[in-house]
Specification:
heterodimer; A: mainly alpha; B: mainly alpha; ABC transporter involved in vitamin B12 uptake, BtuC; two-stranded antiparallel sheet; two-stranded antiparallel ribbon; 13 helices; about 5% strand; globular
Amino acid sequence: MIDKIRSADRRRVGILTSVGDRWRALPKWQKAIGVVALLVFLYHLPYLGKLPGGLMIPGLNNLRTDSIEGGNNWAGVLFVCAIYVLVAIGLNVVVGLAGLLDLGYIGFFAIGAYSVALFGSVNSPVVKWIQQEFNLPPTWAVTWGICLLLAIVLTMISGVLLGWPTLRLRGDYLAIVTLGFGEIIRIVARNATGVTNGPVGISAIPGPEGPPSADNKVFGLIDAKPWYWLAITFVLLMVVLVRRLEHSRVGRAWLAVREDEDAAAVMGVYPFKFKLWAFAMGAALGGLSGFLFGSRNAFIDPTQFNANLSILFVAMVVVGGSGNMIGVSLGAVLLAYLPERFRDFADYRWLVFGLAMVLVMILRPQGLIPSRRRARELKDRAAEAEEAPAHV
Amino acid sequence: MHFDELIGHLGQHTVDGLSKGAIYALIALGYTLVYGVLRLINFAHSEVFMVGTFAVLILWTQLGVQNNPPVGQAILFLVLGLVVAAVASGGTALALERIAYRPLRRKNAPPLIFLITAIGLSLVFVELFGQVLPKLLGTVLPEAFGRPRQIVGMPTIIQQETLFTIGNTAITNIQLIVFVAAVAMMALLDWFINRTRYGRGVRAVAQNPETAALMGVNQERVIMLIFVLGGIMAGAAALLWSMRFGFTQNSIGFVLGLKAFTAAVLGGIGNLRGALLGGLFLGVVEVYGATLFASNWEDVIAFVVLIVVLMFRPTGLLGESLGRARA
């Protein structure tokens, strides 16, 4: 049985890699058509399975989460998928490219969300303090665009602050320290009531049009479609950015550090510097994602940032195929979408989810859509294990 | 900042911290043993502990234990509880190794993959005890599974009372039992690893698997052994926890596992005596910190101390050395 699955799996991998090869071999104009088609598809997704006259396309319509009883708003789920993809891309830089195990990614996500909440909402103690200090009107708050910059800068700084003392540690130690960092951020958010309002949370977090109100034409609380389009736009921008980075000197340095730190150092790549760079980059992306989350939700409190979510984030990257941007995006979408769509099994969904994680890892340790380099590495390791039976 | 409170009752806080840290230390042993031999973080070990607490709960409720039984019965219940918890936890740890780790070890997969399967299995166990078992056994064992995902209480086996006081430090019977039992279990394990034939096998595999195999050590058996030993220690911790705190929940493992793992890293992961030191140190630091600031800051203090210690001693307080411990 298992062997059958494995051989079918091997065939499927063959198809996947040949798809990749064929794509790379296409002439430029055909690639352009493909990219445009993908963009149209992504921006059209909120209308999936719906025709203009209010008609439904039966097969496609069933993919929507609102096609089942008690299902969530489809565009809202898409928005969550999109911000998770952003998280996965960011975490992929840290885990997949630089090979650093970060179990505290939720910390950056939380800092991103809290930076828009603390500086953008009139209800936050920080804004109130600034109003008093500088005699500003009670409606004054930092605008959304500046909050965006603040979120990115603050998360990058916190990434460097966390990385500076800890990145000299070996991999396994780094895992626990980052896990601790995530918890520290959550507990500080809960306990520092004077700054963050503690467990009460912060409401009235602004969107691009300012604080949430009934007058907002585009970014309202009810219609999630504009939010999804905003998020997917950020995702596409970041995909391009990270892609460029991956194929630059920095990206090659990350791979070198991941493969063998000492060898990289001998070749003149200073591992610490590039690890820190990866950490800051990953942190910024997590912060951006958290920023979007906070601004869409319009309300955040510390319970939304618990450590389980960090672990879910790592699972997205590894199940999807660490090191490969398409793979990790798929992982993120699956882990965000499946529990929403299969609410009928709501009681059992985490159980199934856990089992699926174990099965995927045992059958396909390289992830669903692995990066080629990574898949080859794992193959080498497996071959090594077979050559040296003393290991078993 | 409550310096006066901390200094004034330093002894009391130390005793509280030590008895808290003893439980961390027992769980930390499981992480340390597995890490020492396989160089992998057994993330699902926290669930091994959780299963142990449920085993104790089911045993006690099925035996119809009442609160505050007579001394003779109490000892019987505790000994039975230890046996049942050790069997349940050890069995769970063994199953974990079989299902999640062995297939991956055959493939020589990198450590990250092990971590993810462990997380997956940990989720499975939490859901098993929060969802599946309550559905199946909710009517048969209503005390344990009647209210899924809720905190369930256990009968009080020993009434907490002050045994003696030194200065202004009161030591209760439960604190004393927890501390002494935990240290005794650890001493036993230390003796087993350092003095017996099987222990020598464990240390050999930790030092160099190939050479150990050439010398006739069965590596698979050693790996099974360390998982079972770690499980037994977690079972003992589960019993002490049940006796001291008297409740359990399907999601109880996460935070405790995190703390225990922190303790293992603090002491130097892979080092048995390090786990003891790390556990006790963490327990004491937490209690001090909670007194100094407020009790809702204790987790922050635990992790900050971890970061600070690792900055100055990157391999923990005692260094990592299951294999290098006196051969």
